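// run 5 | inverse folding | seed 20
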């Protein structure tokens, strides 16, 4: 299948504003001096204590899936790993790259349970062996108005779904992320209710584009990008792609999600990229590409479903203004 790539008004710290590019670039110079942790010593190349990483950490490769990949210019690695939303490590875009070294990524397990016939708990080796790894170059669009193009490494979440055999009662899939204040300094903030949770309808989770992700740029996920396992849902705004997942649950009813619970008028459950549905405090009609566009460069037009038009059938007959 060819993929054509084409709330109550609450003042939420940091997520409502885009850091000016000139300030962002000066931060990169600082971040560039941070020590990068060399990763070695396990079958996954993951240490007991990893550092927020720069390129050159630990290799993780997959077969390139051209049918599911954008042909756009990739965002430079340094940009993708130094400008992040990961509130567990701070609300500023530069915080995760500076503080996520405290995250311990080995050992790690993901529990998959709920409305399934075969619940399972998998360690990282088990996750990696579940299906062949692929590299897919996905565009990711943030609700704040910026985007990146990143080569992710993983496989369709549907492979895991098939393994656990959901029952007929399984209508939604909930993702629960790590919440450990000893490792995650951002948990001292009350900006969100922890742990961070997200969710998809089961047909969205089963769509072949929904990627269970363990790497990027030919390497394991850096801590600041959601190590050691996250999902990527490329037609939705970035906050739907939960990071550092510890549990996946199949449930009967629509789950509460972190941002929707905090500010439902600003962050809908579906959160599909839609230029026609503005955020209450800013437009979604345009976006700025991080690492490529200068601060004075004209913004790009936002494309419905982020250009991944094959997903349109999932929402046939739905009012996408109401179910935003």
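// decoded
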């Amino acid at each position: 299948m060819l993929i054509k790539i084409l709330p109550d008004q609450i003042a939420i710290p940091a997520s409502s504003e885009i850091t000016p590019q000139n300030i962002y670039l000066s931060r990169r110079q600082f971040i560039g001096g941070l020590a990068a942790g060399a990763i070695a010593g396990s079958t996954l190349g993951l240490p007991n204590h990893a550092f927020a990483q720069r390129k050159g950490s630990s290799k993780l490769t997959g077969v390139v899936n051209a049918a599911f990949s954008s042909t756009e210019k990739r965002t430079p690695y340094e940009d993708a790993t130094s400008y992040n939303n990961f509130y567990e490590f701070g609300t500023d875009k530069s915080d995760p790259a500076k503080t996520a070294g405290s995250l311990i990524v080995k050992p790690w397990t993901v529990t998959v349970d709920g409305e399934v016939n075969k619940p399972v708990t998998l360690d990282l080796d088990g996750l990696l062996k579940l299906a062949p790894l692929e590299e897919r170059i996905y565009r990711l669009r943030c609700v704040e108005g910026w985007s990146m193009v990143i080569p992710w490494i993983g496989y369709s979440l549907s492979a895991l779904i098939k393994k656990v055999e959901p029952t007929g009662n399984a209508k939604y899939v909930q993702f629960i992320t790590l919440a450990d204040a000893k490792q995650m300094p951002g948990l001292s903030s009350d900006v969100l209710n922890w742990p961070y949770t997200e969710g998809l309808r089961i047909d969205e989770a089963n769509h072949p584009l929904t990627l269970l992700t363990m790497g990027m740029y030919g390497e394991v996920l850096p801590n600041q990008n959601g190590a050691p396992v996250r999902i990527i849902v490329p037609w939705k705004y970035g906050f739907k792609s939960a990071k550092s997942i510890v549990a996946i649950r199949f449930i009967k009813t629509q789950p509460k999600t972190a941002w929707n619970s905090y500010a439902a008028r600003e962050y809908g459950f579906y959160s599909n990229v839609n230029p026609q549905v503005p955020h209450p405090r800013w437009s979604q009609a345009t976006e700025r590409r991080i690492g490529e566009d200068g601060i004075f460069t004209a913004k790009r037009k936002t494309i419905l479903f982020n250009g991944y038009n094959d997903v349109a059938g999932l929402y046939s007959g739905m009012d996408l203004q109401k179910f935003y």
